[in-house]
Amino acid sequence: MSTRLICLPYAGAGAGVYRHWKALSTPDLTAVPIQLPGREEEFGLPFHPTFEAAAQSTADRILAAVGTDPFVVFGHSFGAALAHGATRELVARGGPRPPPGPPRAAPPLPPPA
């Protein structure tokens, strides 16, 4: 069973900033970019009116993406704040949660070959 690496973009960006990470996925770790409304292929959808609404919607999208698979959540800048908010929402619902541990910074990935 592959762990899903949920990827949340920084403010103003779409999930496309992480799409090349999918090519770097392994049998143990699969990158799953999460698109936010109003970006790229969801350009016509309205933005969330509040951060709480964004966290709730992102929690829903995470659940849809992971199913019953284990997962971790990564976000850059605003994406990190959204990752925290969505994870808090999942915990409040009694839903699945990523494994415990302190937040970590990761070295940048090399560009795709």
Could you characterize what this model shows?
It holds the Pfam family Thioesterase. The structure is a single chain. The chain is of the alpha/beta class. The chain has three helices and three strands. It has one domain: Rossmann fold (3-Layer(aba) Sandwich), CATH 3.40.50.1820. A three-stranded parallel sheet has the order 2-1-3. Helix 2 crosses helix 3. The longest helix has 16 residues. The chain starts with a strand and ends in a 21-residue tail after the last helix.
Helix-strand blueprint:
Blueprint lengths: L2 E6 L10 H4 L6 E5 L17 H16 L4 E5 L2 H15 L21
Parallel strand pairs: 1-2, 1-3
Helix pairs in contact: 2-3
Count of beta strands: 3
Helix segment tally: 3
CATH superfamily: Alpha/Beta hydrolase fold, catalytic domain
CATH class: Alpha Beta
What's the story with the biggest beta sheet? 3 strands, parallel
Distance N to C terminus: 26 Å
Biggest sheet, strands in spatial order?
2-1-3
Task: Determine the strand fraction and express it as a percent band.
Answer: 5-15%
The number of domains: 1
The shape is globular
Order of helices and strands: EHEHEH
Radius of gyration: 14 Å
Protein name: Thioesterase domain-containing protein
Family: Belongs to the thioesterase family.
